[in-house]
Amino acid sequence: MIVTVLFGVGLGVSVPILASRFIRYYRMHQGIRPKFTCDNVWCLLIGGGGFVGVAFVLHSLRFTPQDAIFSLLLISMMAVIALVDFSVHRIPNKMVVGLFVWAIVRTLVFGYPSFSQVFLGALVAGGMFTLIALAGRGAMGTGDVKLATAIGAVLGYPTGLVALVIGIIAGGVAAFLLILTRRIGRKDYMAYGPYLVLGALVMLIL
């Protein structure tokens, strides 16, 4: 348990650091004005403390130390994606590739999900979100499609599909509330990445 907690602290501290690097990159190279940055002491403390809490939750759910460490690594990657997307409306390709690599490694180490589930999860999720992106005419970007495909691969079929449905519902509720409170307009773009990540986390823990 101690090793898992220490590993969680390290990942929790690294999340805001890595997210800040991506945010700065998009600000400098694409001229995007971020909603927030994660380059202060409070972000490091919140990240480290938050991942300690996640480590205890995984322990209480009887995750083995090895599976808990792999899960913490996955959660950290998705946390970076969620922070960056929420701040600058961009999903880092490097982190998406990391999710695909994690899916393969998890299959090799644990044997689940199987390679067929990984492939089918990616195929179904990618196909579904491609259709949503095309039908939405720009409401959902290619980054969301890539992230959904990666989540489908990481969780496998049908778990990944359930996670994405949860994410879509959560995103829809958030969009409705934002429109209702006039925070955004009907045609404004909102970051769906955090909600897709939320759905993935729910299914990962369950």
Can you tell me about this structure?
The protein has 206 residues and is an all-alpha fold. It folds into two domains: 1-90, no CATH class; 112-206, no CATH class. It is 79% helix and 0% strand. The protein has eight helices and no strands. The protein has helices spanning 2-30, 41-60, 65-88, 93-110, 115-136, 142-155, 159-180, 193-205. It is globular.
Taking all Cα atoms into account, the compactness measure Rg is 17 Å
Give the overall average pLDDT: 90
Please, how many helices?
8
* Secondary-structure-derived class: mainly alpha
Which parts are unreliable, with pLDDT below 50 for 5 consecutive residues or more? Answer: none
Summarize the structure.
The protein contains 8 helices and no strands. By secondary structure, the protein is mainly alpha-helical.
